[in-house]
Amino acid sequence: MSVFTNVSFDELKPWISSYPIGTLLELKGIASGISNTNYFVTTTTGRYVLTLFEEHGADELPYFLSLMTHLAERGVPCPRPVKRLDGMQLDELNGKPAAIVTCLVGRDIEEPSVTQCAELGQVLASMHLAGSTFTAKNNDTRDFEWRVATAHKVLDFLDNEDQGMLKETMRRESELDILALPQGVIHADLFRDNVLFDGEKIGGVIDFYYACRGAFLYDVAIAVNDWCVNKDGSLDPVRVKALLSSYHAVRPFVQMERSAWSSMLLIAALRFWLSRLKDNFYPQAGELTHAKDPQHFQKILKWGLAHQPEIVAMWI
User: Fold this and answer.
1) Quick check: 70 and 130 in contact, CB under 8 A?
2) Whole-model pTM?
């Protein structure tokens, strides 16, 4: 959610006339994240979000837009893509695929409470169930093969200890049958900055552009590694159990997920450590872009490898 592609007010005003959302009043860049270009768009009918897709091609995007529509229609608090006057959800702007979605209430939070972690668990489980009737398929672009390839790219930049952590986690993943776990549509990027809270309730889940078919437990692990982590990389067992218990009340975990729990947390941490290492060593130029610190997930992974019994004890 950064500004890689500039769009001016005068450029957007005629473009937006193809949508039934009124006259453009204000355009403001969103200066956070690292993947797509996003703007807040205010018109005479309300506030929306304009996204220009920097990494996805026009052939990939109908999946994400259709998924958000599907989830929104089933009560999941997520953006609903706005159709053009001709019924299309996807357009092109300044040479990039572009879409307009509804802007949801709330704001992201920096320090989640136990109650907010429980709320996230409930919404995540509801989203997994709602996605069970979504028939379109999309593969994970950050899967095991991606991790192997990215590991090779960054390995020589790491010291011996970090190389050892990377290799050990990859070994553990190679021994885990992830495809045997309960599968379905997952968000795959459910960080605090992708959830908007209106008080203690979630007003919206945003940024579905890594959504794919995957293991539900992987989605849970991604969330736990961000929502329940302390500054030193350790996990807060109270928040972890709140999130897991609330999730379990909506979509009960199975025994196989319990067995895979500790390894899945490591795999989820590795995925984002590798992603940030790649962005750090192979940066993409972009205006208003904020590269994220790889060391954050290095600490999470290091703590996770050293505290496996504690992680197992956090399971509900």
Assistant:
1) yes
2) 0.92
